[in-house]
Design brief:
The chain starts with 10 loop residues before the first helix and ends in a 12-residue tail after the last strand. The strands form seven sheets. It has a five-stranded mixed β-sheet with strand order 1-26-25-24-23, with no helix packed on it. It is built from six helices and 29 strands. Helix content is 11%, strand content 37%. 50% of the residues are buried. It has 532 residues and is mostly beta strands. Strand 16 and strand 17 form a beta hairpin.
């Protein structure tokens, strides 16, 4: 996210492609072979590991065998990667939008890896991978019962619950909810009662409010497709009410929009995450006036999840941080010279199966520098969706000069979003997090977790009894009731073709809430949670 966060059924096709990525334009980072160019081995390989080191870092880090189990490598990942590298022909069964990909020249016309080298690579990964990935999650550490919050479903909901976006509007004490079926935004009051509905005609996954109105990043296709149905939509504030206006159309799947005057001309520009699937990009759009824009591509690959505007080098100009999934699995900071010229800096890069899902900036240690709270837990890559021990929440502390250091990790299967707020007003930041791919058989409590900060990077972990009453795709935190304490809202999307107990799926479809509201008890009569 969706936002939308990275719900990619076809991530198995792109998130683990060893090489043979779509060739880059002049903005490419690393030289890549042109289509039809056959790569020749520099010499004989003594083993598949050597071959992988040579061929498997054109577009991303060299995958480690232990990132997936043997069956997944053998039956899913490697066959798809053979296709990406021109060793086997793509099929419509594997690529729903094959015609679009062929027209874009996505697939190589000749093998990019010699057959013998590929065979050695495949044998190496299957032989070296574990039989099964073991999740270290201990459900016993997640206590049931949230003293800090009172939990209740919103009074209004859609059936089935296919919530793609939630936002707390603290000024109006309202909740904005997007839905995939209605392709509309529902405005709810603080109790979750419906106030009004405005049809958008597309699936909203992120909303940003400005003085002019509500801008929606609309994904077009919720599930991974190449058809360019993404849009940037505006509900413009007028004397007659909200008026729908299309700002941009015909985009790959679009997931986030952020506003700033990037070139100092006094007009509000915006940065757009065009996540796509196999074709996508991250760009800023220069405002020319009268809703006319010029696009400046900053990163010409798919997978841009969400971005944040912040002056990282304190020179008075708005910079950009963006988290990229889809095999790149990296955090970038783009430093702005004030005229709209950006310099890209790689902050960190992870394994191509990492499954990044979102981030936010927050000064966690109170040193005046913005840190990064990052989640990785997208697990729609493969049919069995095995739990991954490296999924979870990470805190990267800002050490200055664009250097960030991982300081804390909490394992959470399928982690999809985390927010840091001082929910109990004790002077430090707590964390609320959701999982869209929890281990429903062994650790269902990880669907939602509240980590109360005890100091020294130590947290107590709890959840609410009804935590699996929805499948939480999206979340927001803010002061919903106007009492000075941050509340939480969760949005549920129940239809995903991944392994879930049938009884649970049936419960979701019959009575699952679209939105769950967690009201902060900080100022509840007779109780004081401000001090420990």
């Amino acid at each position: 996210m969706m936002p939308l966060r990275r719900l990619l059924l076809a991530a198995c096709l792109g998130s683990l492609a060893l090489s043979g990525c779509k060739p880059e334009t002049a903005k490419k980072e690393t030289p890549a072979p042109s289509h039809g160019e056959k790569i020749l081995a520099p010499g004989p390989f003594s083993n598949g590991r050597q071959a992988a080191q040579v061929y498997c870092q054109t577009c991303h880090l060299v995958p480690k065998p232990e990132m997936l189990d043997k069956r997944t490598w053998r039956e899913e990942a490697l066959p798809k990667m053979a296709c990406f590298n021109g060793l086997t022909a793509p099929t419509r069964e594997a690529f729903e939008d094959l015609d679009i990909l062929l027209a874009a020249g996505f697939f190589p016309k000749a093998p990019l890896i010699p057959a013998k080298a590929w065979d050695a690579i495949a044998d190496y990964y299957v032989a070296s991978a574990p039989e099964k990935l073991i999740s270290p999650q201990d459900q016993g550490q997640i206590q049931i019962g949230l003293k800090q919050f009172t939990v209740h479903p919103a009074r209004f909901g859609r059936k089935p619950a296919l919530t793609t976006m939630v936002r707390i509007d603290p000024a109006r004490h309202m909740i904005e909810m997007g839905d995939a079926t209605s392709q509309a935004v529902d405005f709810l009051d603080a109790t979750g009662e419906l106030v009004s509905t405005v049809r958008l005609g597309n699936i909203p996954v992120r909303v940003t409010e400005t003085d002019r109105g509500f801008y929606f990043a609309a994904i077009g296709h919720f599930f991974p497709r190449e058809e360019p149905h993404g849009q940037l939509l505006l509900l413009e504030k007028t004397l007659e009410g909200l008026r729908r206006k299309v700002i941009l159309s015909d985009l790959p799947r679009t997931t986030d929009v952020q506003f700033a005057d990037f070139n100092g001309d006094g007009r509000m520009d915006f940065a757009l995450c065009v996540f796509g699937n196999f074709i996508g990009r991250f760009s800023w759009f220069e405002n020319l006036g009268d809703d006319q824009y010029t696009e400046h591509v900053l990163f010409d690959k798919p997978g841009a999840l969400n971005s944040v505007v912040y002056d990282f080098n304190q020179d008075g100009h708005p910079d950009l941080a963006v988290l990229v999934a889809q095999a790149t699995e990296s955090m970038f900071i783009f430093i702005n010279d004030g005229k709209g010229n950006f310099t890209k800096h790689l902050i960190f890069q992870k394994q191509p199966s990492w499954g990044h899902s979102g981030f936010e900036l927050v000064d966690f240690d109170g040193d005046g520098r913005m840190d990064m709270l990052v989640t990785n837990g997208d697990n729609a890559d493969f049919t069995t969706a095995p739990t991954k021990p490296y999924h979870g929440i990470r805190l990267y502390l800002n050490k200055g000069n664009l250097q960030f250091e991982e300081a804390w990790f909490f394992h959470l299967n399928g982690a999809y979003k985390a927010v840091a707020r001082d929910f109990d007003h004790d002077g430090d930041l707590d964390i609320a997090a959701i999982s869209f791919f929890p281990d429903y058989e062994k650790s269902p409590r990880e669907s939602f977790v509240y980590l109360e900060n005890q100091g020294g990077m130590n947290f107590t972990v709890s959840t609410f009894a009804e935590c699996i009453s929805g499948r939480w795709l999206t979340m927001d935190a803010g002061d919903l009731e106007g009492d000075g304490a941050d509340d939480i809202v969760l949005g549920s999307l129940t239809k995903m073709p991944t392994l879930v107990p049938e009884a649970l799926k049936n419960t979701w479809l019959e009575k699952g809430p679209s939105v769950m509201i967690l009201k902060n008890n900080l100022h509840k009569a007779g109780r004081n949670h401000a001090a420990k």
